[in-house]
Amino acid sequence: MPAWLDTLIKAITPYLPALGIAGIVMVLASMVVIPYLIVKMPADYFVRDSHRRHWTAGAISLCVLRNLLALVLFVAGFLMLFLPGQGLLTILIALVVSDFPGKYRLERAVIGQSSVLKAVNWVRRKYDKPEMQSPV
Known about the structure:
68% helix; mainly alpha
């Protein structure tokens, strides 16, 4: 085994229990939060033409809070790609919550993936909501 890999394993080993617990917490949270957010999104969210805002002090504060939440969701989603959980759906929710230039183009690209759209629509059907309209 290369020395750098042995060093990396030794550095990560003390954190494995915490990573395992974090993975379990993320799975449980994703089972509640992600379906709730998917169900609350309007069915035409990804096909709307306009998502413009008027910037006020309150809107800027809300934007900062939303982006902090989005960052947490994105990191959790990224970790769930390797740990148990719904990683792609969590990353999609992080994109929806955040505000950055080019956001809607990226969201449409992600939801345009057939596997992601099928998963989102499966959740929406379970709660008797209309299916998401595909942007493609």
